[in-house]
Write a sequence for this structure.
């Protein structure tokens, strides 16, 4: 029976055993909480893996092979590609590698605060890196070149989710170093994305412009900037707290909406109603609901239809307090079949102002409050062309994106 010891690591010398994950007969996956963890009263996944004594079996196999909270630690897209490349180089068939083995490969490098032991990948020393060289290597990998992936690219890009190539790095001014775990004093944890796709030359400035537009709309966004002369988009990681006053290198537990409810993000089946209900129950804070409404309105107005359940997340600190994470993965997106991945009160193609208001009011917001949110989002979206130009976006692409935007305020 394969076993994985799961820990919560809040900082360099501050962690606690959570429990043991195991693969039993016939592929069954079970988990048992550690008695000391149960005594803390913390809940890493309150609905699908509630803290309780005894063995808990993962029964929702249609979601995936793991409980949602551990599935959140695994990469998809780019990170999965790198991981599979590694196993093939080891003479392994990636299809035969279990989910538990993949967690051990991630070890302490997962997003959030969960770590998996005994890790099979040794920690790498902090070293200066060249983002342009890593981006060139990533492009060769995406093109299917039969090359040995640079160890730095495999280690730094192996845990983040999402399709686009990306790396986890430490940043101090213009200095960039490797380092997924602890960083030297003065450095901050950042995630940097590399260009990909048919409009690869503009993906960095485009996402940067969207993040700036979202910030003007009043949305909670992480610190963001462009690297390598404006080519690569990066955000400061919100699952890390680099404040030296708090000791630096602190971690927060992160859980996506999809992982919390065990909904497969690849199968559009959820509504923003679910996001608001989860936000209210998990945080007990109506401000989280208002923030969720703000993001819904922005996604509709700015034509971001890649609004699936893994693109919303929640953070828990060492005291067990939950908050909604800052926004991420904001950009122009057509969506499946030209519709929003998460529907707005059942409507995915052309949600109306009236439908948006009714859904928000149902979750405790006042009509005037919703109208204020819509008006501020509209004001920000109306500034798109100026924001895009100032961000270095291609003029023709920015104009094409503008044609997909629509203002929602009633006239």
């Amino acid at each position: 029976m394969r076993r994985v010891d799961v820990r919560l690591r809040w900082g360099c010398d501050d962690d606690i055993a959570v429990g043991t994950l195991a693969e039993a007969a016939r592929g069954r996956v079970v988990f048992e909480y550690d008695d000391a963890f149960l005594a803390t009263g913390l809940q890493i996944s309150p609905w699908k893996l509630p803290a309780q004594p005894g063995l808990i079996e993962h029964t929702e196999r249609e979601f995936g092979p793991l409980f949602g909270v551990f599935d959140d630690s695994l990469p998809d897209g780019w990170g999965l590609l790198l991981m599979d490349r590694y196993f093939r180089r080891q003479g392994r068939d990636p299809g035969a590698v279990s989910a538990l083995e993949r967690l051990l490969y991630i070890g302490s490098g997962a997003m959030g605060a969960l770590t998996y032991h005994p890790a099979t990948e040794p920690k790498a020393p902090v070293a200066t890196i060249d983002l342009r060289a890593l981006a060139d290597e990533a492009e060769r990998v995406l093109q299917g070149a039969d090359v040995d992936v640079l160890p730095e690219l495999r280690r730094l890009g192996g845990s983040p989710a999402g399709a686009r190539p990306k790396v986890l790095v430490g940043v101090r001014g213009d200095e960039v170093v490797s380092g997924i775990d602890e960083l030297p004093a003065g450095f901050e944890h950042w995630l940097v994305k590399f260009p990909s796709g048919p409009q690869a030359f503009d993906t960095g400035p485009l996402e940067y412009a969207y993040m700036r537009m979202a910030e003007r709309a009043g949305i909670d966004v992480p610190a963001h900037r462009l690297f390598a002369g404006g080519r690569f988009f990066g955000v400061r990681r919100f699952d890390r707290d680099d404040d030296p006053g708090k000791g630096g290198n602190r971690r927060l537990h992160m859980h996506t909406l999809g992982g919390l409810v065990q909904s497969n993000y690849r199968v559009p089946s959820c509504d923003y109603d679910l996001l608001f209900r989860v936000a209210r129950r998990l945080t007990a804070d109506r401000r989280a609901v208002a923030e969720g409404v703000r993001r819904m309105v922005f996604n509709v107005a700015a034509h971001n239809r890649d609004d699936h359940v893994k693109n919303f997340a929640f953070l828990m600190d060492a005291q067990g307090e939950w908050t909604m994470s800052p926004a991420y993965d904001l950009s122009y997106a057509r969506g499946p079949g030209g519709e929003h991945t998460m529907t707005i009160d059942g409507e995915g193609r052309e949600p109306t102002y009236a439908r948006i208001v009714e859904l928000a009011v149902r979750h405790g917001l006042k009509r005037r409050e919703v109208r204020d949110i819509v008006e501020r989002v509209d004001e920000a979206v109306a500034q798109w062309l100026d924001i895009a130009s100032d961000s270095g976006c291609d003029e023709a692409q920015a104009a094409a994106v503008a044609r997909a935007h629509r203002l929602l305020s009633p006239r």
